[in-house]
Structure formats: structure tokens, C-alpha cells
Amino acid sequence: MHIVVRGAGIFGLSIAWACVERGERVSVVDPHGPGAGASGGLVGALAPHVPEAWNTKKALQFESLAMAEGFWAGVGAATGLDPLYARAGRIQPLADADAVDRARERAASAHDLWQGRYRWEILPADTFPGLVDSPTGLVVHDTLSARLHPRQALAALVRALAAKGVSVTADAPKGDTVIHATGVAGLWELNGIAGNRIVGAGVKGQAATLARDLGPVPQVYADGLHIVPHGDGTVAIGSTSEREWDDPASTDEKLDEVIAAARAACPALRDAPVIERWAGLRPRARSRAPMLGRHPLHDGEFIANGGFKIGFGMAPLVAKLMADLVIAGIDAIPPEFRPEASLA
Ligand SMILES: Cc1cc2nc3c(=O)[nH]c(=O)nc-3n(C[C@H](O)[C@H](O)[C@H](O)COP(=O)(O)OP(=O)(O)OC[C@H]3O[C@@H](n4cnc5c(N)ncnc54)[C@H](O)[C@@H]3O)c2cc1C
After folding, report:
1. For residue range 28-81, what is the model confidence (pLDDT) as tens digits?
2. 245 lines ligand 1 (CB under 6 A)
3. Which ligand 1 atom sits closest to the C-alpha of 42?
4. Ligand 1 in contact with 209 (CB < 6 A)?
5. 71 alpha carbon to ligand 1 midpoint, in Å?
6. What is the homologous superfamily of the domain 91-146+202-284 according to CATH?
7. Is 236 in the pocket of ligand 1 (CB under 6 A)?
8. Strands 219-222 and 25-29: what pairing?
């Protein structure tokens, strides 16, 4: 079978890699080149939702986060280029006694829901000196969260594919089947087909990179912000979440506020210089979940979209589910992740 993957973001490249690994002939097409969309950003937090009120989305996110270590080790080994993946954990400051009580309950539910493989525990904040200020002196530490350098990960995937003879081209060759992983453009194409309803949209996010080598410490989640120390001596911080925007790629005072809040939360960043400011559009399906399966417009073709805020975290599982479906005809995609969930 010759599979044409449209879109060289994290979804398209991961799916292409999973298909190549199964011995299929694959072509990747992207007129704008790899990482031209949301995947060309900075943050790279692979972090779980809270371990309570379990549902399909949380269960599949857990499965994908657990798969990530093997997936990225495989990509790195195939190329020698390190995607800078590390399961370095995450800490979150606890604001008051209520937050501490909630964290204790979640520690118990995490033990069951995360199958005893990862911990959600309460520790003194000074276990991680200088990383975060906590009003109670306590933090939640989880050992499931990981970080991945988005651009390095994309570069590693591109190189791994090239080593198997697959390059990213601007023109579409003819194949036996097509998988559309075209991010926001692919969602916009669907708008209007369900009785003029919005099927998907682009939610703008602004992020920044600071120069500070914090070593292999956990990432921080504080006041809704991700602070992610990367393996290249930088720290990514993000993000804004903007449904209304004029220019998807510009940064402004909203990012200044994010940077100020990150510096306030994390003492180690107070004088760290900003080295990059970036903005892009997250592909958000109406269901807010990934949109995987048969393409609603293109007969006999497939779609993988809707990564929204967790596209990097979901990529290993998305790649597996799509390869299973397209190559083996095994459809293990739950109803919540199908295009119909956003079309209904
Ligand atoms: C500020 C910000 C912070 C984020 N932080 C995180 C995070 O910490 N952790 C996380 O897991 N996720 C995060 N995300 C979300 C994540 O980046 C996205 O979910 C993910 O990148 C989406 O990947 P994608 O491959 O579906 O789409 P994209 O990366 O947008 O790729 C789509 C590609 O399709 C191409 N394309 C468009 N039209 C066509 C066509 N007709 N033919 C061929 N190709 C086409 C585009 O050029 C583009 O390269 C963040 C997003 C933003 C914006």
C-alpha cells in the first residue's frame, strides 16, 4: 500500500513514522514544510489531566503518555538525533489547605488510575530548590509528566523518515490512500458541512523561550502556565489561549504578562533573558478531543486532527490508532475521538 500523508506537523509525521515502521510505502506532503503549523512551537509539555473523574479522553491520554518513552526512544535510535524527551515529572504549587486536601485525594486516585506505574505525591517545595514559590510550602509532584523539545522532535522524525527514504515534498504524489493531518486548515475545510455549524477552529497561543539551564528538573504548572525546562539549556513558557485574534502569528502584551507570571512563579527565571517569542494556532475540534477516522468530505480517505492543547502528548497513540485503521483495517477509535463527535 502507498499511503500519502498530508501535513508535516506532529500528527502527520508521527503517523507517517508508524506506517513506515510497519513496512508501508509512505509519502509526506506539506507545501509549507515540516513544523509550519502549531507543531513548530516551543512548549512541549507532555502532562496528564488530573487523575479523577476518569473518562475515555483521560484514559487514552494516559495510554499515549505511557507510550511516549518508547516511541521517542525509537525515533531517536533511528536517527541519532535526540528529540530531547525526558520523563522528568512536574510540580504544581499548592495554594491553601483545600488544595492540599484535594491533592491527597488525587494521590489515592492516581495510584489506581495510573495503575501503580506513576505517582501523584505531595512533597515540600524545597525538594526542588528555587523552582517554584508555594504559599503552603508544599507541591504536588507527579512522575508521569514528561517534556519534549517540539522542534527537535520534529527534526528527529523528519530525519528518521528520510533514513527510510521518505522526504517531505510540496507536491502530492498519487497514492492508494490519503491521510489528512493538516491542522487548522483541515478543520476550516470542514466548517459548514454540519448545517453551518463550526466543526473546528484555531485557538491562538503565544509562548516564549528563556535562556536558563535548569538541568533535569521537573516542569512546573502554576497559575495555568506551563514552565518547561528543556534539554538544550532553555526553558519554554506558555501559553495564552485566545479564541479571538487578528494575526495568528504575532505576539503582544499578553505574552509579556505570561512571561511576567512565569518569572513570578519560578524564582530561577527572574533574570533569565527571553530568546524567542512565538505564536500559532492550535487545531481545536468542536468536541475538544482529537478527531480521528474516515474523512467526512473525502471518500475513502482519512483524517487525524484536533490535537488542540495536547497534540504532542497524544501523537504516539494517534499514530498507532491511525496505522491500525489504515493499514490493518482495525478500528479501535472510540466514539469521542471520531469526526462524528464534532459533526453531530
Ligand atoms: C502556544 C502553544 C502551546 C502548545 N503547547 C503544547 C504542549 O505543551 N503540549 C502538547 O502536547 N501540545 C501543545 N500544543 C498543541 C500542539 O502544538 C498541537 O496540538 C499540534 O502541534 C497539532 O499538530 P498537527 O500536526 O495536527 O497540526 P500542525 O502542527 O498545525 O500541522 C499541520 C500541517 O499541515 C500543513 N498543511 C495545511 N494544509 C495542507 C494541505 N492542503 N496539504 C498538505 N499540508 C497542509 C501545514 O503546513 C502544517 O505544517 C501547543 C500549541 C500552541 C499553539
Report:
1. 999 999 999 999 999 999 999 999 999 999 999 999 999 999 999 999 999 989
2. no
3. 3
4. no
5. 19
6. D-Amino Acid Oxidase, subunit A, domain 2 (3.30.9.10)
7. no
8. unpaired
pLDDT tens-digit series, residues 179-192: 999 999 999 999 97
Check whether domain 2-41+151-197+286-343 has CATH 3.50.50.60, yes or no: yes
Q: Is the pLDDT of residue 195 over 90?
A: no
Does any ligand 1 atom lie closer than 6 A to the CB of residue 172? no
Kindly list the domain boundaries of the chain, sorted by start residue: 2-41+151-197+286-343, 91-146+202-284
Torsion of CA 298, 329, 17, 153, to 10 degrees: 80
Decide: 308 in ligand 1 pocket, CB within 6 A.
yes
Confidence of residue 284 (pLDDT cuts 50, 70, 90): very high
Q: Does residue 29's CB lie within 6 angstroms of at least one atom of ligand 1?
A: yes
Instruction: Report pLDDT digits (tens) over 125-143.
Output: 999 999 999 999 999 999 9
Q: How far away, in angstroms, is 35 Cα from ligand 1 center?
A: 7
Ligand 1: does its nearest atom lie under 6 Å from the Cβ of 7? yes
- pLDDT exceeds cutoff 80 at 225: yes
DSSP state of 174: P
Q: How far is CA 264 from CA 66, 268, 269, in A?
A: 32, 10, 8
Is the pTM of the predicted complex or chain greater than 0.85? yes
Return the residue whose CA atom lies nearest to atom 21 of ligand 1: 39
Give the pLDDT confidence score for residue 127 in this predicted structure: 96
In terms of Cβ atoms closer than 10 Å to its own Cβ (0-12, 13-18, 19+), residue 299 is exposed
Sign, CA torsion 285/287/290/295: negative
CA-based nearest residue to 60, from 275, 337, 341, 340:
337
